[in-house]
Amino acid sequence: MSRRRAISSSRRRGARRHSAAERWLLLIGIVTIVILFAGLFDPWRQKPVRPAKVEPLSMAAARASNAAVPIVARRRVRAEPYRFRGGPAAREQAVECLATAALYEAGDDRRGQRAVMQVVLNRVRVAGFPKTVCGVVYQGFTRTTGCQFSFTCDGSLARRTVHLGWGAARRHARQALAGRVFADIGRATHYHTDWMVPYWRDSLVKVARVDTHLFYVRGRSGR
Length: 223
Fold this sequence. Notes:
This protein is mainly alpha-helical. It contains six helices and three strands, in the order H-H-H-H-H-H-E-E-E. The protein has two domains: about 45 residues; about 160 residues, Arc Repressor Mutant, subunit A (Orthogonal Bundle), CATH 1.10.10.2520. Helix 3 packs across helix 6 and helix 4 runs parallel beside helix 6. The termini are far apart.
């Protein structure tokens, strides 16, 4: 009899423990549901704010915006003459890189070509850019975005055609590598056409305009 009573008592204790565990699980389930419900329907909870869609500027709006940015002439400091120090083969390679950049960026406009070349040579001499002419021209060309000169990564090179401007571009490139300075843009390292507004525009200082291209130097106008 004592053995049966012990077994019976053990079964009752097990049943009580099982019942207590079920109550705890039920309580935890109820608390979890309450928390989820409060999180979903909390009237004080801030709803996520969707970023406003930024519409691209029209050509006219971009030109108006750019025209409102003044040219700071006092920041247009004449660049030092550039002296190429490589051998004949390296020089011809630099000539080709300069001429290509000038023609693709400015077409056959001679002042525009010289302005683009001056930007390239200015970049060679400042921190943050490659130290060779071709390095500057083709910086980032392996990326679909992020190249410094768009013609190097937008497929333009694959569509290269014979153009009357090549002779003049190569001539201007040789002159620039021999020390001829295009003073109209000073030491500008950035430029863009007047029908677009790049994200970096307001962090630089506009110092010149050549036809439809606007030129900038680093640093804010108050510096």
